[in-house]
Amino acid sequence: MKILVTGATGFVGKYVLKELAYRGHDIVVTTRNPEKAKKNIDLPHDAFKWDPMTEALPMEALEGVDSVIHLLGENIAAGRWTKTLKDKIYYSRVTGTKNLVETLNKSSATTLVSASAVGFYERNVGDKELTEDSPKGEGWLAKVCHDWEQEALAAKEKRTCIFRIGVVLGSDGGAMDKMLFPFKMGVGGNLGNGNQWMSWVHVKDLATMLVKAAEDSTYEGFYNATAPHSVTNATFTKTLGRILSRPTLFPVPSFVLKTLFGDMSTILLDSQKVVPRRLEEKGFKFEFSTLPEALEDVCHKRKLPPGDKKVVHQKLEKAQWLPDDRKKVFSFFCKPENLEEITPKWMNFKILRSSTPEIQEGTEFDYKLRVRGLPIKWKTIIKKWTPDEEFIDWQKRGPYETWYHTHKFTPYKGGTLMEDIVYYKVPGGFLGELILGPIIKRDIEKIFAYRKQKIAS
């Protein structure tokens, strides 16, 4: 299928694009800046320039498109809800959707999958479960969601799916982006009295359900995009503290949140127990149905060698599409000498020894390199070796407390989608993470950016 995504470079959009690629779809995106999108999107795609606030979607953007996944909208948690920000939140959704649907109705595309939010429903109704059939709530946020949905429902003779999305959990954006730091510092706590219900969803599950709806003609109407088990804020706080091994002794009183954020504090303090009844009826399989497993993934808590228990790691994910077939790409990366070619010169990276003539599971490598001028010796071992598909190397001795690097190679659109997934832990415990963590993260980002540029050239 050919699927157009609006909001493709946003937090949720990035996961949707990856899910589309895994499923082999052709990707089209809209953006105000196509050149910038090309740099930010590591997958083959067509990009069309569009300002959703001022013009209808260009008709050529929908040429050959089967489905549209519509994710545009100003971040509702971007700051205090001034009149200016409220207008941006409202019109980015309502006007943007109207300008999309105007062109969609003239096209041959058959499906619209549109975002909405659980803010549509009534709030502070105790333990009452809110399903897709529950009534609209009162207030400004409910009006935003209602008007937003009405513009999506104006799509004529199109299969339309509207997902009312809860609090989205992920490690690189969304609610956790602001939450994790104070909790890691040990100063996290309940918001208000902590009794308010939180209806959440893991970003990977959200991306999966949006793409599934775009593909599956049996999906239609309204769906609550929340995990099956809502929790109170107190439970959320306690669970996150336990996973991070940090105390949660510093609650933030309601009056402080109201003073700091004004009306925006309602999204932190109001209670909604939303259930995904229609998704469950469809048999949708959640990868993260309970909060502990979701937060362990978000916090990168894994048991990785050489450890014997789960600990919290840093995580880096990179992807790059190459026009060559998988066998050729894999062959290049399985030759140790090529690592020297794609590693920044300032690191003075040299391979000293390989324990076997050809790489296989169990092969060990000894390297030397310089990190910020300091000489380092590094020993890694191949933990997994699946020719043409995947290999994993992990640090046996070196500068990190843990380094576990998965290299994946997937055929996609006549070429190869190459992915690097790195879990690492800096030395020095809490202070090491606090002081060295940001520096090391920047250094690793620079190394992978250099490698990407070198490979592309």
Provide an overview of this structure:
It is built from 15 helices and 22 strands. By secondary structure, the protein is an alpha/beta fold. It folds into two domains: 2-299, NAD(P)-binding Rossmann-like Domain (Rossmann fold), CATH 3.40.50; 303-456, START domain (Alpha-D-Glucose-1,6-Bisphosphate, Chain A, domain 4). It has a seven-stranded parallel β-sheet with strand order 3-2-1-4-5-7-11, sandwiched between helices. Strands 16-22-21-20-19-18-17 form a seven-stranded antiparallel β-sheet. The chain has a two-stranded parallel ribbon with strand order 6-13. Strand 19 (374-386) and strand 20 form a beta hairpin. Helix 3 (83-104) packs parallel to helix 4 (140-152) and helix 7 crosses helix 11 (291-298). The longest helix has 22 residues, at 83-104. The radius of gyration is 24 Å and the shape is globular. The model has no long low-confidence stretch (mean pLDDT 94).
In short:
34% of the residues lie in helices and 26% in strands.
Uncertain residue ranges = none
What's the total helix number?
Answer: 15
**What name does the CATH topology of the largest domain carry?**
Rossmann fold
Q: Return the structural class.
A: alpha/beta
Mean pLDDT: 94
Shape: globular
Instruction: Give the class-level CATH name of the largest domain.
Output: Alpha Beta
- The CATH homologous superfamily of the largest domain is termed NAD(P)-binding Rossmann-like Domain
User: How many discrete domains?
Assistant: 2
Major sheet: size, sense and barrel closure? 7 strands, parallel
Strand content: 25-35%
CATH architecture term of the largest domain: 3-Layer(aba) Sandwich
Biggest sheet, spatial arrangement of strands: 3-2-1-4-5-7-11
The helicity comes to 25-40%
